[in-house]
## 1
Amino acid sequence: MNNGLVSTNNINLPNALDATLPQINEIMKAFNLPRDILASDAEIAYAWSELPREIMRIPPELRDGLIVRMCVATSVGLFDGAINYIWNSVIITLKQKVKNFGLSLVASTLGKSFDEQDLNNYMDSQLLDMCYKLELLSEDGYFFLNQCRDIRNNFSSAHPSIAQIDDRELINFISRCCKYGITNDYLLQGVHVSDFLSSIKGRKLDEDELEIWKQRLIETFPAQRQLLIPMLMGIYCDPDSSETTRLNALKICLLIIEYIDDKTKSSMIEQYNRYFVKGDTDKCTAAKRFFEKLKMLNLLSTSEQHSIVKNACKNLLNAHLEFNNFYNEPPFAQRLLEITSSLKTPETVQNEYVYTVLMGYIGNPYGVSNAAIYFYEEMIRNFSPREIDYLLKLNNLKSLFTEKTKNYKCCRERYVMALKMIDNYSMNTTQLAQYDKLIKMLE
């Protein structure tokens, strides 16, 4: 080995292996223990050479003592310790993201009190679930970090290990932790909710103040924005709100209207439905005026249908993802088919509808729910042009669906089968070209 540095841009690790590897061998001899209880020299050398590339993914401000310990453990073949250190760094980072998001909004999302002590008491699996729910983790991030959690629990120094991992498995673990867990949005700050509400309810906001809140809402977590916009709608619709407060809420929504996505619109529709079900005519009237000002009156005409289809999709997807799904899916699939056969699926929920149907149809590595296949096929054959468009784009979107089609041949084959159910006459020229290209790629 040479005496230079392992270098990737600004990551320079000393080539300490010439000194450490002989010492490891001497220590083993001193205890009269076999050398293979630690990683081999070749494995240590490989892992050490690959570390800089992975560490480059970590923001400089997060390359702390845990990352240093991970490097030291790797350099002496303690791969089980390296796993533990990098995983602890992931957990610390995710907890900080939750704090930045806002514990008060977390409590609102969970529907119960939630403070820093509760956060510190959360198990790793609970933390991952919550981060996914708050959209602090993407679907693929949630998927891969859950795999990392299993590896950490079974192969790290945190618990008695069932076996040793090798150099490539270690680097793969570190890579996923750096890519999905210790990420650049760590310092992203959420809107301080109490300050935000105090400002809105205090007095008429001038142009500069409105611009400040606009910018903060644009720069915050998407999930926090999805919670705050319906909150502003509620303030506007509350008959006890002063006119100044109501106008402040409306003006802020108008300023960020391009950031009101389908998920936020879905929450707004459900909020309107709650007013309607409770017979609160004052709030219903105010909500209609709110939608009118935002030029979203078209949402109201399909609000009930939206809620029905969304709930049916949610119930079916939950049944698909839970234990004993092959037995539980059919009635939920039948229910969704009955609903979508009797009404036009609202545009705001079409993507969720297609995703849910395809998730059930391709099944999982162990098979499909045979009793539900008929219902899935009927829905696929009746996809609208807009739904077909999303069906063709599914393979390019990061999701649990694409993870299944990429990793499991049986799921990929069933995706092809679903595509072939679409009648060519239902597709335009652009879609036909996408269709042919996708079929060739998947087969």
Note: The beta strands are 5-8, 11-14.
## 2
Amino acid sequence: MSRRSRWRWSNREDQTLNEHIRIGTAELIGQRLADFTETLDGAAIPAAVRARARHLILDAVGIALASTQYDFSHRTLAALREFGAGDGDVIGYPAARLPLRDAVMMNGFLVHGLDYDDTHTAGVIHATASCFPTALGMAAEVGASGTDLLTAYVAGMEVATRLGAVAKGGFHQVGFHPTGLVGAFGCTLVAGKLRGMTAKQLAHAQGIVLSMASGSLEFLQDGAWTKRMHPGWAGVAGITAAALARNGFLGPKAVYEGRFGLFPSHLGTYFDPANLALATEGLEEVWEVEKVAVKPLPACHFTHACADAAMALRAAHAIRPEQIAHVRALVPAEVVKTVCEPVHHKKKPQNSYDAQFSIPFAVASGLVHGRFGLAELEQDALNDATTLAVAHKVDYEPDPNSAFPKYYSGEVIVTLADGREVRHREHMNRGASDRPLTSADIIAKFEENASMALASAHVERIKQAVLGLDEGISARELSRLLAGRA
């Protein structure tokens, strides 16, 4: 067969595939998301949504800067430098210039490094940690404006959060981390949007990234560092898939609902076809960005309600560690595998990452210290005999009144040595969409985190630049500023 004949056959095949874009009257999810991404106009995004998006980005930048002060970030940067230098900026590292994909990998790692980054509660996904580094790196690469960066970020967030919501928490039950797994699809559309790709190309790109998306929860066994790399890897996969599709590479069309599509293949018995509608429901009418929860505590969002409940009990009843006989923590049944098991590791965390995913340690920290912040994750705090003794008294039970996944509810019941029982419930976790941190709260959190790495004048410049993304700053200018090169 001649090259020209093969080209004609390929086009005929593609036309046939396109004729099957619709199954009955339902458009394939990938095509609908591609259409949404291609046509999304920044001017059509409501002002309140854009404002919230800017504050979510500001939160992410502050966390990334704080992460530069920890050993895990230095080791990761050293590894990525082995692949050579490039033009990509790394947040908080003025001397580090990496190739685009490696810079995105590193920036995603920094945003997610302290597990302090935002969470879309229904999707159970840290979407900003992948969508923002991808948007920052790609927008700087193509010379886009801050407005274009923000628009692409919003597009990716709207996609990733909805895809996560389809699973109803099921990915965690079978050992997949949606931040890496689902995040790759959002990043693909972020990269494609900034490359000016057509809806047809964007549809193929999602099919391509289906073979790249990944993220295992095995780190929960021993506090390994692998979760930190998931958002950046999602960005790497997304940029790669977009480039392949842009150059004519073909991907499968039934990306999400096909026989071996994302949801049937990764959810198994947790897959409910009725939930597929959530992937496209309300596009351009309901903005999921507004439902993203900003974390008030530097730990897995599943621990927050119980940690806050423990702090509230300590404050209300002046509880002393020696008074505590036993503690029951009520948690959503869906989060048990993540923050309650294996029990022996959760009651004696092996490192800070282990502690960030431990209900017993979070509750014990709240009861003993009245806090559960970055200081409580330092090695001395992890080895504190009093905290560990209380942690060993904490047992968990499935919460019969849980509102998961709308809220990450939690309740703590303390039995005192004199037989009294005191309890406190946080049905709606602090930071949830119906109990959000305010813009002022987010700014204060950013300033506290960023000040761990930068002088106050530089912190203020970054704050003004991020909150003014719609006011003329270019993506390259922002990228240099965040790296400390401007």
Note: Strands lie at 22-23, 26-27, 88-90, 93-98, 119-120, 292-293, 324-331, 394-398, 410-416, 421-426.
## 3
Amino acid sequence: MTDFRQTFAATDNLIVAPGRLLLDSGPQPGMAALLRNGSFADIGAMADLRARHPAARRVELPDHLMMPGFIDSHTHLTQSLGKSLVFGEPSEIFRRIWVPLEGSLDEHMVYLSSKLAALECLRGGFTAAVDAGTRSAGHIGRLVDAARETGLRLVVAQICNDLGGAAVVPNRATILQAAETHLAAYQGDPLIHPSLAISIPEVASDAMLRDIAAMAGAAGAVFQIHVNEHLVAVERSLVAHGRRPLEHLAQVGALGPQTLIAHSTLVTPSELNLLRDTGAAVAYNPVASVWKGNAVAPALQMQALGIRFGLGTDGTRADGFRLMDAAETMQRAGYGLAAGDSSCGGGWLWLDAATRMAADASGLAGVTGRIAPGLAADFLLVDLDRPEFTPSHDLAWELVRYGNRDQIDAVFTDGRLRMVQGWPVDWDARALMAQVREQASPAIAKAPIQRIHPTADSLMATRPA
């Protein structure tokens, strides 16, 4: 059995030769990757790499798949302390649960929540995540600290609402200055990538929507916004503007290649054309649709139209394999069954949507998402010596339908080993969990959360015998 901690204690100038290497052309045997300075320096057949780099150390892992790490194109790291409070609740839980919870978190609780969520991300094979921004009062630095300490690559947003939806809503000049400062703060950072966000269109003025989108675009950063997720929000927009939310963003000039739309589940044909024509990207969040949404994003139609999209969790559960399975399943249930579409995009589509396509949607295409020379060495080693992959006839499909996070033996970001069999190698996750167990309940108790239903546990206790 491989001792991953010892084998990968040093990864610079190291050739990794897995049984299969997941490249753009699919999972390939006989291929290897050279790691150097935190990046993939060379890719090729093992014999060729040995010839080109004779001084490099080599490790052979014949029973493993080496694949790009998953990228969560939409999540909320500061919601992890209350994650199961939303089960069974009706839509727009952000108004009754997430905004009150996040707004009540102090600096320490932002850190604990973010580090717990980052732990879950890495355990689930996510080497990168796009955080939509914390609504707490100015504690984004602690969220960044948590990502750095765990090794999670993070696209982190500064929320720029000027009409509400956050713990503190500054004036316009203060918001714009904070946005500029945020964009400048992480230039050249190996793991942290700045982004700007407005939570939903109705919590920002038209001028702020336009200006923040333009500022992000000029900086080469992503502009994040939740749009067309719930029917009530679509109707509010129609009442306020005579336009649906996506139409309103287009009208004010806030749609463009820098724009990352979370959800886009309730979209008309003309709105799909807007996404295509403006180059905007979508975070397709299938588990969120199952758990609390009003609809499922038409991801297959988006693909056919050339609309950029990647998979996101929306903070639901951090398991990249189960996310791919949910993405394919929801397209099958929502569209494929009625149309007699038995492939629903094929296994490769969902592998791409969880890695390469998610990197593009997240503004990280030049950084990660593929195993290719020059990109960051963010990757997973997946154990193929499992019943689920025996015998193997079509590994791409098998990863989508049989994959699970307990099959991930090792997680790497920026060329460094971060996780072995679900646990970090250089910090104490169980000590963190003990802190969370001790401190989460008081934090939840002081937040003005409004639940519609009691918990399932409490209802079970009152059931007649």
Note: The chain has 18 helices and 17 strands.
## 4
Amino acid sequence: MDHFQLIDGALHCEGVPLETIADAVGTPTYVYSAATMDRHAAVMQAAVAGAGAGEPLVAYAVKANPNAHVLARLGAAGLGADVVSIGEYRRARAAGIAPDRIVFSGVGKTAGEMAEALSGGLFQFNVESMEEARTLSAVAAAQGRVAPMGFRINPDVSAGTHAKITTGTADNKFGVPAADATAFYAEAAGLPGLAVHGITVHIGSQLTSLAPLEAAFERVGELIAALRAQGNDIRIADLGGGLGVPHGPGQPEPPGPEAYGEMVRRVTAGWNARLLFEPGRLIVGNAGVLLTRVVRVKPGARSPWLIVDAGMNDLMRPALYDAYHRIEAVRPSGMNQVVNVVGPVCETGDTFTMNREMDRVEEGDLIVFRTAGAYGATLSNGYNSRPLAAEVLVDGDKWALIRRRIDPDALAGVDEVAWR
């Protein structure tokens, strides 16, 4: 459920007309619904309540949408943070998220990042190689601290999603092979400065079936038993994220958080471990839209070209992995058309969809790309010397600009010549 709805013939975000935002801020602009984020955070926490030993920790995947005001809102709603860089760690801390609710994931953590996060405090490092564990040990020993950690296991389970958002097969860069886990845990347990109490898994994003997740979790359960038999004190199991979100009619309907929670409780019964979860898209995906204006309609060989002022630099997902976004008119006429929707960037890949039936619109009309709250603004860039889109947060009948539009002159201002 989201809070974008037609009121008096025009699309609103909660109580605010999107036309009002476009008139005030311009386009393209990301618009987020605070009520939708609040609801999704509450639903996810309720879905996993009672699972595992102790209170589950739902750690929002900051990479999905790292805006400071989004993080503050989700922190206030009770979520922790899953970070993959020291920049995300700093953002989470600045947003008020407590260190003991932050997990640090990612395959390329540097010694400097480890040192800063360890001195600032965190719940756990999710370690992705034996080499990384050795580096973390050296960093912790140098500080005279103990680093809490768990290995990320690669269970070689296909998520059944797009190849570029699959993370749990043997050909992916993430995690350590499940077959090597017992040897790696044994070595890590003997290294100074490490508290090896966790295990983690994450197999991909936008999953539309629980079966791959269940297979991965069962493999984790087997490993927990084997590791404890080896003498390891495994107390924490991080089950990652990846549950898909609905994209609208004609698209695969993913299982809901409630069904996910039921599966988790069934599979993890008897683990006697505290459970962690890392949802990102599930929390913010349908809480945001990209608001854009039609520049012109150009005749095409098969279908007209609907050219909008948002480009692939604003919303990269369709160009990156053929992602689907529902496209709607802000003020629908009740008539439809079949069009190709494209942006102004000088790339053939700047194509959002081909031969899509959608609301009939004309030059100057506003449209939205739905399900744009995750992996939208965070992936944007200034290609073609285009400005970075603005971001707006709506809360009831109020709205606020939470990232100003960054124009090409500001981006060019970081260019410099300093010969050495």
Note: The mean pLDDT is 93.
